[in-house]
Amino acid sequence: MKRHFAYLAAVACGFWLSGATSFAAPIPDDCKIGGFAIGCQAWTFNHFTVMEAIDKTAEAGGKVIEFYPGQQFSAEQPDLKFDHHATDEMIAQVQARLKKDGIRAVNYGVVGIPNNEAEARQIFEFAKKLGLYGITTESVESIDIIEKLVKEYDIRVGFHDHPRRPNDPSYKMWDPNYVLSVVKGRDRRIGSCADVGHWVRSGLNPVDCLKILKGRIISSHLKDLNEKSPEAHDVPYGTGVSDIPAILKELKRQHFVGNISVEYEYNWTTSLPEVAQCIGFVRGYGARK
User: Fold this and answer.
1) Where are the beta strands (DSSP E) in 110-155?
2) Structural domains in the chain plus CATH codes
3) 250 touches 207 (CB < 8 A)
């Protein structure tokens, strides 16, 4: 009976063979924890392979994963990198591992989207094959092509924010008002990948930033930091300076339906217990509500 239930849950989470769907599907409720589709950004496990990152996401209790370009593919094929140039055979192997571990692939990035339709289309085709909900980028210069392909593929695009760069005033993605100016008037499937930790590193209040971008939050890299400074490092949710409950409350208020990625950039080779603690915090938050 338990195995039968697990099978039904896996089906509900939307596992499929390569090419079986033409458009990105919404993230099913059965793939959510505490009301959120939460899992790992594979960058958290960038000292490991894609296959190991999937396994570790499952071990941490996550339900979804966000891939990034260039991760080593597998221990058996160490010379291969996983990105939007992956072969169908590589994609099929990844899908098999996802199905085995009960994980759904939902996002890809941060990836540069070229201001060239043919090259940009390769990224959207890759996302379609994996059935992704969204793509994460900072390629503002490609906004016209992005909007065209978002409409064609029904795959969302979130503009990611890195921290403010005092020595590079041309970098503006850290500012939610700038991101809003980029997506304003564009298709509603284009918005923000809200990296709340980088907002803290930039001296901003994440909840205020979310409010600025209301209705445009496509996904989030959720972080709690040990201090409010550019040098801050990740800590388990609820133990740092970020008000994670307030952030989750604001996402709920906005009827956020995207993915939350734990992007844990500390204790690189031994972070699994801390990542699990982050996911457990969100599970507990949902239970309290």
Assistant:
1) 134-137
2) 34-288 (3.20.20.150)
3) yes
Helix axes 88-101, 117-130, angle to 10 degrees: 30
The average pLDDT across 237-251 equals 98
Task: Report the predicted TM-score, pTM, of the whole model to 2 decimal places.
Answer: 0.91
Give which of 179, 193, 190 is closest to 222, Cα–Cα.
193
Q: What percent of the chain has pLDDT over 90?
A: 89
Nearest to 257 by CA among 67, 107, 139: 107
Dihedral pair phi/psi, residue 99, rounded to 5°? -65, -45
The answer to whether the beta carbons of residues 225 and 233 sit under 8 Å apart is: yes
SS (H, E, C) 57-72: HHHCCCCEEEECCCEE
Structure token pair of residue 1: 């009976």
Q: What are 21-66's pLDDT values in tens digits?
A: 345 678 999 999 999 999 999 999 999 999 999 999 999 999 999 9
DSSP string of 23-43, one letter each residue: SPPPPPGGG-BTTBEEEEEGG
Contact criterion met (CB below 8 Å) for 222 and 247: yes
Beta strands in the chain (DSSP E): 37-41, 64-67, 71-72, 81-82, 104-108, 134-137, 156-160, 190-195, 217-222, 224-225, 234-235, 259-262
